[in-house]
Amino acid sequence: MMQIVSLHTMSIIMVFIRYLLAIVLFITGIFCVIRFFMDDWNWVFLLAFAACIILAYLIKPSSSRHQRAGRRNTDYSWLDIVDLPIELLFQIISWPFRLLGKLLKHLDIDFSPDL
Fold it and tell me: Global pTM?
């Protein structure tokens, strides 16, 4: 007889799969940045590093959303260690783009012609 797996169990399995994929992407990104410095500054590796870190950030489960909802399971709190380096590298990568956006918003350049 086949047993039906509960939704809660499936949710936990999906969280682990997402964390596992985020860890693999993070390690791949670190490998790419090392290759960037060792392979005569090959820019493909730097772009692959940025893509891996951004994808790892987007794929990993959001810890703040679970904490706000009060659903964070304390049995797996060691997974919070995974969040820190991924979020830190994502913030470092996204910082120049945010700064540029703030600068352009502050300048408030109007390109519409006066008729």
Answer: 0.76
